[in-house]
Design brief:
Number of strands: 11
CATH class: Mainly Beta
Largest sheet: 6 strands, antiparallel
CATH architecture: Sandwich
CATH topology: Tumour Suppressor Smad4
Order of helices and strands: EEEEEEEEEEE
Radius of gyration: 13 Å
Structural class: mainly beta
Strand content: 35-45%
Distance between the termini: 18 Å
Strand order of the largest sheet: 2-1-11-10-7-8
Length: about 120
């Protein structure tokens, strides 16, 4: 299969790569995008996609770790200056810089491996 940039239309599932559990079912991001991170008892902040129940603390995921955004009608991942990094296909992302997502891209937040799958 040829890898192509994911279009920012339709619906997606974000899944744990290790066991296939569905983390979130989302529509393509609009103007604001989605913040991925973790909630915890010491803060009132809750990210758009909360990875707490997937062992976020143990995996080194920040409260505001990364963002899934729309840019030029395609999906991009942006690291939000996370402590333990955001990785795309094994490469660490530079903070605050958007990186296009492609079919079969492997995402890693801290040490949590995720996949983004187009569902429509």
């Amino acid at each position: 299969m040829t890898r192509v940039t994911l279009s920012a239309t339709g619906y997606f599932e974000l899944r744990c790569a290790d066991d296939g559990r569905v983390v979130a079912r989302i529509a393509a991001p609009g103007v604001e995008g989605y913040i991925l991170g973790r909630s915890d008892s010491s803060s009132t902040y809750i990210p758009d996609i909360d990875l707490a129940e997937f062992g976020a603390m143990e995996h080194g995921i920040s409260r505001r770790h990364a963002a899934l955004v729309r840019l030029r009608d395609s999906l991009h991942m942006v690291d939000l200056e996370s402590a333990n990094g955001t990785f795309l296909d094994g490469r660490r992302l530079q903070p605050e810089k958007p990186y296009p997502l492609q079919t079969e891209s492997v995402l890693r937040l801290g040490t949590l491996n995720l996949t983004l799958i187009k569902t429509d």
